[in-house]
């Protein structure tokens, strides 16, 4: 995706999109939500609050992805509860 493609998707001029991407202009919350949607991720990921991204699948559901492999249980993992 080019800056021009991104600008069009966000309803911004190319110059404004470029200035925002380079940190010269702050993003509004509405723009961050739109940007996350266009990039198929979460606002939390965009602002560095989480290493996970939330990917939208073709069926409209959301799948959590992470760059941290320890978040995925290995084969045969059975969750247990204690005290029940």
Describe this structure in words.
The chain contains 4 helices and 2 strands; from the N terminus they run ααααββ. With 84 residues, it is α+β, with helices and mostly antiparallel strands. The chain has a single domain, classed as 434 Repressor (Amino-terminal Domain), CATH 1.10.260. The protein has a two-stranded antiparallel ribbon. β1 (53-56) and β2 form a beta hairpin. α1 crosses α2 (14-21). The radius of gyration is 18 Å and the shape is globular.
Keywords, separated by commas or semicolons:
globular; 434 Repressor (Amino-terminal Domain); alpha+beta; two-stranded antiparallel ribbon; single chain; 84 residues
CATH topology: 434 Repressor (Amino-terminal Domain)
Low-confidence stretches: 68-75
Number of contiguous helices: 4
What number is the mean pLDDT? 76
Radius of gyration: 18 Å
> Order of helices and strands, N to C?
HHHHEE
The main β sheet shows up as: 2 strands, antiparallel
* CATH class division: Mainly Alpha
How many individual domains? 1
Strand content: 5-15%
* Gross morphology: globular
The CATH architecture can be named as Orthogonal Bundle
Instruction: State the share of residues found in helices, binned by percent.
Output: 25-40%
**End-to-end CA span:** 52 Å
Number of strands: 2
**From the helix content, strand content and strand pairing, which structural class follows?**
alpha+beta
Order of the strands making up the biggest sheet: 1-2
